[in-house]
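--- STAGE predict ---
source: upstream dedup step, 1 unique chain passed
mode: sequence only
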Amino acid sequence: MNAAWIVFRKELVDALRDRRTWFVVLLSSLLAGPVSLLLIASFVSSAEESAARREVIVANATAAPVACIVTPSTGEVALVSAGTALGGIIGSFAYPL
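--- STAGE serialize ---
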């Protein structure tokens, strides 16, 4: 067991003495953070884009007590009562884009 520790210590000293090893270790550790953040950001961005394109189809919407209508260009949200003949607006507010 003692001989294994001597060999391990010698190999460790040799590896720490090698400048190329230090360069690779430091460079890879410095690049790992930003690269992983870029990968996560691109994944989240693509997930948000696919969620924005998703359409929701409501079956029998006229029987719903209240409908929520969003105007995509302005971001305005209107709550509309489906029970009235003209679909009276209960309230509306602007949703920040």
